[in-house]
Structures are given as structure tokens and as C-alpha cells.
């Protein structure tokens, strides 16, 4: 499949920045209908879900986003956590106004207790309807429920706070994950003496 690291099989200077419609019609539809993709740059990571920080070198990366195909799974449990679906779905329409897909949102949670992180996933699904109005030939083998296209990214500058975690000294400023970790270690640092 080649190196899908930084820019896949794209020539130097090109950036992979497709719209939702392009992801559904030009990539996911071709994958589901077993049509050859041109260029074939998004890898298939199959059934095994990966921790988001382990996607580098496995998925197509573009900036701080990673793209890959996966087969639809009931539960997406990884080595260190799981992807939790959010109750947010958006329809994807073609430029002709036809509904061609659906975008679902998930958040990555660490551990069995499900501590939410700043890692997000957008899953792209094909509609049940035959993609009428598109220029693609209908394919009897098209299985709209077998394949999804995933876009994974880390929200910058924030760790998700637990629901209901409000404090009186909150000034609306979000702390980075590292800032929160260092602040939690602050009590431990008081006991450490440093040389002058």
C-alpha cells in the first residue's frame, strides 16, 4: 500500500483536505462498491481499532488529522480504551442536494472507567438509499453497512472536563493536558527540595 505517513502517495506540495461530500462520494462509495480508487491513498485498517496516538504511519495523515477505512463494528475497544459515540449525527448532502451520507461523532475514552480525552473521530457512513444522482454506476455488490471512513483528530488545547465539574474559581480558561497534569502534581512537588 505504500507509505501512508505524512502525505500518502500525493506529490510534494499537495495537501489532503477533502470536503465531507468528497469523502463520501469519491472515497467511501468507491471502497464500498469495490471500485478502484484513484489515487488509492486511504488505507484499510480492517476490524482492529487503534488507539488514536498509534495511527501515525498506519493511517493517511494530513496535518493533525488521520484518515482510514474500517469495517463497521458494534464496539470499538482499543488496547487502552474505547471510542464512545456521541449523540451527534449530521447528514451529508451532494452538491445536487441529495442525501448521500451521514457523519457520526465519537470521543476517545481511556480505561474501563471511560475518562474522556481530547481525541475525536468522525465516522462517515453511506446512506441506505442507492446513491442516485451520482455519476457512479450502480453496483449490486454495494454494501452500505460494511465500510466506514474515519477521520481522527485531537482537539487542540483542551482536555475534556468531566460533566458537572464546576468550580468557583473557573475563569473560563481551558488548560492543556500537560498543564492539568502538572497542577495535579503540585502537591507532590511541595515535598521535594531542589538544590540551590
Structure description:
The chain is α+β, with helices and mostly antiparallel strands. It has a domain at 20-154: NAC domain (Metal Binding Protein, Guanine Nucleotide Exchange Factor, Chain A, Beta Complex). It is built from three helices and six strands. It has helices at residues 20-32, 177-184, 186-189; strands spanning 60-62, 65-71, 81-93, 99-110, 115-126, 147-154. A six-stranded antiparallel β-sheet has the order 1-2-6-5-4-3. The radius of gyration is 20 Å and the shape is globular. The protein starts with 19 loop residues before the first helix and ends in a 7-residue tail after the last helix. Residues 1-7, 131-140 and 159-173 have low confidence and may be disordered.
Quick summary:
It comes from Populus tomentosa. GO terms for molecular function: DNA binding. By secondary structure, the chain is an alpha+beta fold.
Task: Furnish the topology, listing elements before pairings.
Blueprint: H1 20-32, E1 60-62, E2 65-71, E3 81-93, E4 99-110, E5 115-126, E6 147-154, H2 177-184, H3 186-189
Antiparallel strand pairs: 1-2, 2-6, 3-4, 4-5, 5-6
What strand order characterises the main sheet?
1-2-6-5-4-3
CATH fold label of the domain at 20-154? Metal Binding Protein, Guanine Nucleotide Exchange Factor, Chain A
Per DSSP, the total helix count is 3
- Rg estimate, integer Å: 20 Å
What's the CATH first level of the domain at 20-154? Answer: Mainly Beta
CATH architecture of the domain at 20-154: Beta Complex
Strand-and-helix sequence, N→C? Answer: HEEEEEEHH
User: Count the strands?
Assistant: 6
Overall average pLDDT: 75
The CATH superfamily of the domain at 20-154 is known as: NAC domain
Helix-strand makeup class: alpha+beta
Q: What percentage of the residues does DSSP assign to strands (E)?
A: 25-35%
Q: How does the overall form come out from the CA principal axes?
A: globular
> What is the CA–CA distance across the termini?
56 Å
Poorly predicted runs:
1-7, 131-140, 159-173
Largest sheet report? 6 strands, antiparallel
Helix content: 10-25%
